[in-house]
């Protein structure tokens, strides 16, 4: 089968924005697609090593004769005939993430099959372990660390660890894929060290270092590598970085030597958190638009322009912030944040929440993944069941609840719409949290908004307390906003609950309007305002309201 071709960092439908080809003699570079690691690497019960990945691929190739396989075949083979075996939830999680990565990066059109080499390459990426970026002296403070590989049944789950009933370790002390300079250098070192292993995945079962790789097979590595005539001029094909590959196959060792010379970190796209700390770093590489928001604290952030498209969005290390992303984005990566509210209007690819605490995220995303996060809420519309992995606990799930006059346009640019066919996909997550092989069936307490009932991974927001989130808009007539808003796509029980609360509010307004005595009306109004001020203070909304007022005075809010 012809392998999928991954275009120069631009994603499907944008390949024409890159260079048509670099003239002979022009310098070329390769860089790592950080989104493949940010979104594609996650914790499961298998601690992947190179030998484990090689054994898995070998047993998979022995079990299937086709180069491309369906999801049903993958799950059956991965859970019963591969070594090491995966749980059904883990197999489903890998399939969904790998499929979306291939679609978002390579533009693969068939949503029902994956090339086994693509699976092998992305499994090899799992060998990269972000916590190894930290100094060795810190590793002993991490859990699960090396002891997980040797403790056997003694350390089986986050729920059975001392942390299970203790305060959460702060997010700053957790392993993270957030792109500091140490992390980027570690990722470069990992790819250089294991490049031959990646190349071997593209080969037949029998190979040697002298085995030759064709250009179209090398292009498969475009899942996690990108080529350019410079870091700001992506090329359409990965093999264009090594012109000899366009003419004839080359031995693997020759390819490795060539890659070692030109592999760099692309700081223009993947700005380190050190450089973006305390604010926002924007960039554009060819047709690729990137936004990095890092280390914000106690502030409100609006996307500007409000309807701009973003290819790679990173939100890292923010605390006590409200962040509005009102345009379309292809990849959204949120890492190391705490006590934040994040609204993401439309994600056409992957939205990942990693190492976060006390986050409320509201997102319409093709695929949503949450890893190593606790005490957080996710209000979702998604085409694929949400994926919960790693040490994830105390999660509240609910349907997408954002009201915004331009939401329809953002969804359209993401090639999405709120369809009834997906109205309850958010309520059936794939749970492959650490040490719980049956999480998909047993990870939920079965209760709504009752976190104390058992020690479950997730539960649902109760319909009686479910309410929408409204994106603030300036100089817009409320009637026009209501007329242009996309109706919420809610399961019946949530729709009924919301209508009930709306009815109660109309009844209250009617009663208030019938108060004829001016003194009584004034007293009631003072009581309402007093309770409202108390609520603003208790919820921390006072600061956000002040931020919005300041933005309005400066003409910064949208549209």
Topology:
Elements: E1 29-32, H1 34-40, H2 50-63, E2 68-70, H3 71-80, H4 88-106, E3 113-115, H5 116-125, H6 136-139, H7 146-150, H8 181-201, E4 212-213, H9 215-218, E5 225-230, E6 233-234, H10 243-247, E7 250-251, H11 252-262, E8 263-264, H12 273-276, E9 279-285, E10 288-294, E11 300-302, E12 310-316, E13 322-335, E14 338-354, E15 357-371, E16 377-382, E17 387-390, E18 395-399, E19 402-403, H13 407-413, E20 430-433, H14 439-442, E21 444-448, E22 458-460, E23 469-470, H15 478-484, H16 492-513, H17 518-539, H18 541-554
Helix pairs in contact: 2-5, 3-4, 8-11
Largest sheet: 13 strands, mixed
Q: How much β-strand is present in the residues?
A: 15-25%
Q: Approximately how much helix is present in the residues?
A: 25-40%
Query: Overall 3D geometry?
Result: elongated
Radius of gyration: 25 Å
Tally of contiguous helical segments: 18
Point out poorly predicted stretches: 13-25, 132-177, 437-443, 451-455
Mean pLDDT: 81
Distance between the termini: 48 Å
Look at the helices and sheets and give the structural class.
alpha/beta
Number of strands: 23
């Amino acid at each position: 089968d012809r392998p999928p071709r991954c275009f120069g960092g631009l994603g499907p439908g944008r390949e024409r924005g890159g260079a048509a080809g670099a003239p002979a003699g022009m310098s070329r570079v390769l860089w790592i697609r950080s989104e493949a690691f940010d979104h594609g690497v996650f914790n499961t019960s298998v601690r992947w090593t190179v030998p484990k990945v090689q054994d898995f691929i070998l047993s998979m190739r022995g079990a299937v004769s086709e180069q491309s396989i369906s999801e049903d075949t993958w799950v059956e083979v991965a859970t019963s005939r591969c070594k090491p075996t995966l749980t059904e939830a883990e197999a489903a999680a890998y399939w969904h993430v790998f499929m979306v990565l291939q679609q978002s990066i390579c533009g693969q059109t068939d949503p029902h099959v994956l090339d086994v080499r693509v699976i092998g390459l992305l499994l090899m990426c799992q060998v990269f372990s972000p916590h190894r970026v930290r100094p060795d002296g810190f590793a002993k403070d991490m859990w699960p660390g090396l002891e997980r590989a040797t403790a056997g049944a003694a350390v089986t789950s986050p729920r059975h660890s001392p942390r299970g009933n203790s305060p959460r370790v702060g997010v700053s002390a957790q392993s993270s894929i957030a792109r500091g300079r140490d992390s980027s250098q570690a990722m470069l070192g990992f790819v250089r060290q294991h490049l031959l292993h990646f190349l071997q995945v593209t080969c037949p079962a029998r190979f040697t270092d002298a085995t030759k790789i064709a250009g179209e097979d090398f292009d498969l590595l475009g899942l996690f590598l990108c080529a350019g005539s410079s870091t700001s001029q992506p090329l359409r094909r990965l093999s264009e970085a090594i012109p000899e590959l366009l003419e004839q196959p080359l031995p693997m060792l020759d390819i490795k030597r060539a890659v070692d010379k030109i592999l760099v970190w692309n700081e223009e796209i993947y700005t380190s958190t050190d450089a973006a700390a305390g604010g926002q770093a924007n960039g554009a590489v060819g047709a690729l638009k990137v936004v990095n928001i890092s280390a914000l604290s106690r502030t409100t952030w609006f996307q500007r322009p409000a309807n701009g498209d973003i290819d790679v969005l990173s939100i890292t290390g923010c605390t006590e912030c409200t962040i509005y992303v009102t345009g379309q984005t292809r990849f959204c990566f949120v890492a190391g944040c705490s006590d934040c509210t994040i609204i993401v209007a439309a994600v056409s690819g992957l939205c990942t929440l990693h190492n976060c605490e006390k986050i409320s995220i509201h997102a319409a995303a093709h695929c949503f993944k949450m890893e190593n996060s606790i005490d957080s809420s996710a209000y979702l519309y998604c085409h694929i069941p949400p994926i919960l992995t790693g040490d994830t606990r105390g999660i509240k799930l609910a349907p997408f609840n954002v009201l915004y006059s331009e939401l329809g346009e953002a969804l359209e640019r993401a090639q999405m719409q709120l369809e009834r066919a997906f109205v309850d996909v958010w309520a059936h997550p794939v749970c492959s949290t650490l040490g719980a092989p049956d999480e998909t069936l047993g990870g939920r307490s079965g209760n709504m908004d009752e976190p104390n009932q058992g020690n479950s991974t997730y539960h649902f927001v109760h319909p009686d307390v479910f309410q929408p989130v409204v994106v603030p808009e300036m100089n817009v007539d409320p009637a026009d906003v209501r007329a242009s808003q996309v109706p919420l796509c809610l399961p019946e029980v949530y729709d009924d609950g919301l209508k009930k609360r709306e009815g109660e509010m109309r009844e209250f307004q009617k009663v208030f309007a019938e108060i004829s005595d001016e003194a009584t009306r004034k007293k009631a109004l003072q009581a309402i305002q007093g309770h409202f001020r108390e609520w603003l203070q208790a919820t921390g909304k006072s600061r956000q309201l002040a931020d919005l007022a300041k933005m309005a005075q400066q003409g910064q809010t949208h549209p």
